[in-house]
Amino acid sequence: MDIRGFEVVSAYEDADINLPQRKTAESAGYDIECAEAVEIQPGEMKLIPTGLKAFMNYDEYLAIHIRSSMAIKRGLMLVNSTGIIDSDYYNNEDNEGHILIAIRNMGHETVTLAKGERVAQGIFSKYLVATDDQATGIRTGGIGSTGK
Question: In this model, does residue 131 exceed pLDDT 90?
Answer without folding.
Answer: yes
